[in-house]
Amino acid sequence: MASSTPASPPAAEIRPNCVRNPGMALQTDWFDAVAVNTPAAERRAATLTTRRTVKKDWQAAWLVNAVRCIDLTTLAGDDTPDRVRRLCAKAARPLADHIMAGLGLDRLTTGAVCVYPTMVAAAVQALAGSGIPVASVATGFPAGLMPLPLRLAEIRYAVDQGADEIDIVISRAHVLDGNWQALYDEVAAMREASGPAHMKAILATGDVRTLRNVYKASMVAMQAGADFIKTSTGKEGVNATLPVSLVMVRALRDYGMRAGYRIGFKPAGGMRTAKDAIAWQILMKEEAGNDWLRPDLFRLGASSMLGDIERQLEHHVTGRYAASHRHALA
Length: 330
Hints:
CATH architecture: Alpha-Beta Barrel
CATH topology: TIM Barrel
Largest sheet: 7 strands, parallel
Shape: globular
Strand content: 5-15%
Number of strands: 7
Strand order of the largest sheet: 1-2-3-4-5-6-7
Oligomer: single chain
Number of helices: 12
Radius of gyration: 19 Å
Structural class: alpha/beta
């Protein structure tokens, strides 16, 4: 993938992970001249998993790491407090006891639990003392087609209920129209409404048509103060793909070089297997580095993936595959 950008200032010092991205004024010259070579991006994404393989103990270690980076999620119309409590129990003990013992692990949790705003209180109560963050979608998820004041009110409600993280959705029309100031103002207002909660900006990449738009929207969201950039809601026709993720990771890498702040990345939707979990970790290692293999900078929005990971780890420990119904699904 090739890109053309204006001359850059000297690379900024990258600050520690604990320092949040404060955002900045909109700088369109950071992305106006960027061109994304789509075939090259697709080739790079296709070869990532063929150039690096992990087997046996190494594969098990990568799968365990994937578990601790999963945002275990329920976003269904029939969600109830009981379902959320069950999800939280799985987040606190994502692998069966005999698998944990076989791997020599004492404790393992998922990266977070993600729910609708009305389910935040139940999740906070269920996870009390666990150290597992509660994330809430907001801003008219998944379409985001609500008046801005209502979307901001939904963020504040979720934060008041105890959410540690807010996953916001952007107005796709601003991206399709190239109205970067409107997108910046919207995301900046959402960041302010999020207060102390870390904000993940969902770009709905399947709706914004081009990889060039993906890069630009990523950069605007980060300039507006996003702590994470996230591919999708999981509700679009096309969700997380490796080429889209590659472009977003290069955008956050470029932002870090210019601004000096580390931005997290969350692919979501379309990932279902242990093989997918390894593929996206290889992408992060190759393109961003080892620091982006930790849950403070990398999350996987793919709850269904956990069942296959647990199945593969049981095979690693016991030498046999268990029937899928033996593993409690999130």
